[in-house]
Amino acid sequence: MMDHGTYGGASSMPRKTVMGYDVPEGVDVRGRYDEEFAKILTRDALQFVADLQREFRNHIKYAMECRREAKRRYNEGALPGFDPATTYIREGEWTCAPVSPAISDRRVEITGPVERKMIINALNSGAKVFMADFEDALSPSWENLMRGQVNLKDAVDGSISFQDKARNRVYKLNDQIAKLFVRPRGWHLPEAHILIDGEPATGCLVDFGLYFYHNYAAFRRTQGAGFGPFFYLPKMENSREAKIWNSVFDRAEKKAGIERGSIRATVLIETLPAVFQMDEILYELKDHSVGLNCGRWDYIFSYVKTFQAHPDRLLPDRVQVGMTQHFMRSYSELLIRTCHRRGVHAMGGMAAQIPIRDDPAANEAALDLVRKDKLREVKAGHDGTWAAHPGLIPACMEIFTNNMGHASNQIQTMKREDAATLTEEDLLQRPRGVRTMEGLRLNTRVGIQYLAAWLTGSGSVPLYNLMEDAATAEISRVQNWQWLKYGVELDGDGLGVKVTKELFGRVVEEEMVRIEREVGKEKFKKGMYKEACKIFTRQCTAPTLDDFLTLDAYNHIVTHRPKGSSRL
């Protein structure tokens, strides 16, 4: 724990109690009071978050303004590319801090929301790393976020358990567990249940601040071998955003009195502008970096979003946009070369398949796809890969171990110098393929079902034998929006049908009928399918494209307690 006597002088400040939580000056907690949450939302922890917010809010606002400015340029016809002003960083000879020994072997990582049973199963799964997610796999309701913090604290101190009454089973941690990484939300998402100086807090500073404050000491002792905590950082578009994270880490280390460079983070390269900033992002996080990861679903979403005003860059059906497409393969290869040149991990993409228990043939076919994908990754030079389900871990582990042998990673052995010749054109090349009515239907069906689950508290949703998170819904939405905007021809069906509002309206109606049939009348009535349909349809038909589906939908899950309500 931090030395509260020396930290921030919080204890000497005038005390005021709001809705049951003991809060420092300028902080207002609007979420439901709960005794468990109060152990997380302590006065000193909130002071730590408030200090981060006050120090960095203007930097964050400026970075978001820069995102909007870049979007304006792309919408006027510009293309993203390498920044001439930072050529010296790309061409310079420098490396990141040596990889912390506790996490040199990351050959298979499992990901999932910060839900109690999930955390136990993932840490026990046999994977090398578990990425516990406050971002795209979590619906950011007050309950989910605060319970997630409670769960992580219990996981780090080793006391976490879960009683599954339905199965009459108690879940506990094994002796051997995965290393824990935590993914906070992106810079753009607010936390509307915590106000600091009258403004919603920045979501990621709440996620990072509360987790770091309560867990850094225990984590470094039990998991990090003197390093840590470890993080994944999402949705960045530019190295200036990485620079803010680096400063946040510096500030946190200083406040905690731990060595600089203790915190380590892997950045997801999941936006198109960021692929041109990989060296610069690693450079800004030099002392805190532990590599980059291919966030490939979000990357495809970002490709559509970046080129929303470029009718010559329409994507084919999303199922056709895999890693064999030239622009996707180029992104993966440049990421490997960049990371290994700078001495850090190059992590591969997600295997989203879920074991199909009632159909062995279909299950084997799905596993075969996973094996092929992972073999391609390890042969390309990736140091590890992601799986969404514990059932995939043995297959992924086997492929990486067979190809890497006893080595912990491929940082020194797979330099991929051939990728040095990749150009802006390679990274932007138009994907090949066709558009079909089934593509439009699948986007609509998956988008609505994901959003319905999200509105009712689930951010990680099994749909059609795949574990979907917000990225899938985002691709579905932006692709529908773009096809509608440009009235594209569904050229893969041989019928020459054009996508219009009328056609889309009909597709939505028919897919809602299909969803009701698939999930059953009872679940359909109880679930928020109609609300989800309204939001999704509005987003697909809006004159201007919203940046994030989750930003718009967030207002539907914010629940403020009435002002002045008493302690529960």
UniProtKB/TrEMBL annotation:
Gene3D superfamilies: Malate synthase, domain 3, Malate synthase, domain III. Residues 435-557 form the Malate synthase C-terminal domain. Residues 25-88 form the Malate synthase N-terminal domain. It is found in: Glyoxysome. Pathway: Carbohydrate metabolism; glyoxylate cycle; (S)-malate from isocitrate: step 2/2. Its main location: other. Residues 179-429 form the Malate synthase TIM barrel domain. The active site is at R183 (proton acceptor), D469 (proton donor). InterPro entries: Malate_synth_C_sf (IPR044856), Malate_synth_sf (IPR011076), Malate_synthA (IPR006252), Malate_synthase_CS (IPR019830), Malate_synthase_TIM (IPR001465), MS_C (IPR048355), MS_N (IPR048356), MS_N_TIM-barrel_dom (IPR046363). Its EC number is 2.3.3.9. The keyword Transferase applies. One of its GO terms (cellular component) is glyoxysome. Keywords: Glyoxylate bypass, Glyoxysome, Peroxisome, Transferase, Tricarboxylic acid cycle. Transmembrane segments: none annotated. It catalyses: glyoxylate + acetyl-CoA + H2O = (S)-malate + CoA + H(+). Belongs to the malate synthase family. This is Malate synthase. It comes from Morella rubra. The lineage of its organism: Eukaryota, Viridiplantae, Streptophyta, Embryophyta, Tracheophyta.
